[in-house]
Amino acid sequence: MHDKRMLSFGSSLLPIIAMLTLLIVGYGVMGLRIEPLLLCSAAVTAVLAYWQGYNWDEMIHAIVNKLAKAMPVMMILICVGGLIGTWMFSGTIPYMVYWGLKLINPQYILIAAFLITSLISVCTGTSWGSAGTVGVALMGVASGLDVPIAAAAGAVVSGAYFGDKISPLSDSTNFAAIVSDTTLYVHIRHLMYTTIPSFLLAGVVYLIAGHSGLMGEVATPARVIEIITALESLYHFNVVLLLPPALVLWGAIAKKPVIPLMLSACLLAIVLGVALQGLNIRQGLDAFMDGFHLSMFNAQGVTTDGIMADVPRLLNRGGLFSMMSTILLVFCAFSFAGILSLTGALEVIINRLLTIVHSTGQLIAATIGTTILVTGATSDGKLALLIPAELFKGAYLRMGLDTKNLARTIEDAGTVIEPLIPWTAAGVYMASTLGVSTLELLPWAIQCYAAIFFALIYGFTGFGIAKVTPSTEPAVETLSGNEEFTQ
User: Fold this and answer.
1) What is the annotated signal peptide range for this record (predicted)?
2) Is the entire prediction scored with pTM above 0.85?
3) Are 59 and 342 in contact (CB under 8 A)?
4) Which of 12, 175, 200, 236 is surrounded by the most beta carbons within 10 Å?
């Protein structure tokens, strides 16, 4: 770094301001595609890096490092496409939708979606697994019942991230405890101060929404019966169709490698589709690659001409290729994040922020703001926990605050906020898997953002804030060079 120009606070803000302006105006107001906006943000940041003295090879190296870390995430995204396509092929998802339509009252679909995904995510510790299995089925039920899918998606995301936040099996829960120098179960108990009120608030809203006019006109019983009849005419339903999701959930609990587990579930689904539905292996591989299509039944002599339009909309989806646009978005986001990490702009901004913090409420607010900023700027959920923890740990000890307050706050503003930012890996995954844009589901993902308000209230009132003997450590800690951003 000795031969590179250091950024001032003002120049450090330039890439962040450029990104936020482009995304808010371009994406939020004008409805432009998000990928070129992220590339424009990356271009602005590249100019700044060039001014600092970095050359093109160094910028590419920083981007490649980011993408290398994101490669497992992208492979999982691709596998999810194959999972959905093969589960449609086997009848697994239609089977879950079938029973959902028969058993769930439209008035209770939101609260049911929230509670079911919450239970699955707590048991498995994975938000992606619960959303990609039962979440997809619940979206099909909501579509069949004419419930607004944005509301249903918000309920699914809320439930999925409830478990991701507090489950002892969750990697983010364990990671937040480690980087904040606290223990896992102390961290989980302290999380209850903000998580339980958020959970109850979300549950009440979903319950009220289902019994009010907020949901609009739900499907008539005749329409639901028509969908059920159509599914019965297409598939041979059997309880063994639940084996693929059972395999995935078992693997998540047992902490088996995700990608081999998902591919195994795809293979099992193809076998079930051939054995139970009378389809062939070629069609199974087509469903895996290109997605399932209702016309596959025509080869078996099953006519699909008279099927109501809602059924093809439910079934025709999935496939590896369906995730390619999602992967492109991840590439664009990490191009920006990679060059930004090279400049060290985030380090400058955060260290300036630390100099104006003088109270517990301000410290909690600064931690929340920083965590959200790092999440949006780096598109990396782990960095969003690591960087604020490293930078703020000394400030918490200096002010006599237990570091479990820090662990709770970075989870409140990082883990559960990541799926609400459209260009992060979690945001892309949830939008792609559930078929609803991030901005549409965001207002309904109450569990995810409500904790921030409780965290701020506690910070400024002192309620739920754990104290320790003040430390003599300096209030401001800095990262040496750019190690955390470029490794």
Assistant:
1) none
2) no
3) yes
4) 12
Buried residues in 259-272 as b, exposed as e (16+ CB within 10 A): eebbbebbbbbbbb
Q: How far apart are the first and last CA of the chain?
A: 14
Q: What is the pLDDT of residues 137-162, one digit of tens each?
A: 788 878 777 788 888 899 999 998 98
Q: What is the average pLDDT across 373-397?
A: 76
Question: Do residues 97 and 284 touch, judged by C-beta distance below 8 A?
Answer: no
Distance between CA atoms of 469 and 401, rounded to whole angstroms? 8
Which conformational region is residue 53 in: left (phi greater than 0), alpha (psi within -120 to 50 degrees), or beta?
left
Residues near 231 by beta carbon (within 8 Å), at least 6 away in sequence: 94, 97, 98, 237, 311
Cα–Cα distance, 439 to 150 (Å, whole number): 9
Integer Cα distance of 88 and 79 in angstroms = 14
Interacting residues of 134 by C-beta distance below 8 A, sequence separation 6+: 96, 116, 117, 120, 245
Residues 126, 303 contacting (CB under 8 angstroms): no
Residue-wise pLDDT tens digits, 454-482: 999 999 998 988 888 765 444 443 333 33
Q: Give the pLDDT confidence of 25-72 residue by residue, as tens digits.
A: 887 678 788 789 889 989 999 999 999 989 999 999 999 987 887 787
Nearest to 455 by CA among 397, 482, 487, 415: 415
